[in-house]
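Appendix B, record 7
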Amino acid sequence: MKSRGVFAVAWLSLAATLWVTPVDVYSLDVEQEREDSRVKALFITHLFSFISWPDGHQAERICATQTSTLSEVLEEVLATKPGLKVTLSVVSGEDRSALATCNIWLLEDVDDLIRLQTNRSLGPVLTIGDQQGFAERGGMIELARRSSRVTLIINRDHAEAAGFSISSKLLRLARIVRTSGARNE
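Structure tokens (predicted):
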């Protein structure tokens, strides 16, 4: 009888450990995702100093097609930098009137990038994403996570074709992806 009680306690202890561990890991993952998003949001706000919009336009309105940790954190960071005068809105990629007012798109999905690229009536729009392969698929700036750092990948061909001028300082920090598939590191 006593050995059954010890076995039951050991089993319950093991079950509790296995049950609680994913919650702790999840908590750390959420905290890590939020910290990664904060670093990416800071990168985004600093990009505006190194990119010139065509025809003298400026960074004014960032649009996201969905709410995400990155869009939430970016909104928080923008609120601490009123001098930027940049707002963030979550809008439908199908809303043509919203599309016309956005000059920066924070895209969570490559399908959104494709829909945006097919709408030729838009003015100059800078596209930013953090999905792997975003720049190679035609996005202009990809915020990539490499081990413990966030790195920039820039599709220079797409950015320049849209009329954006990117500072050589920023280009030196980034990995450049060419539309033709050639890469400069």
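Remarks on this record: The first helix runs from residue 2 to 47. The radius of gyration is 22 Å.
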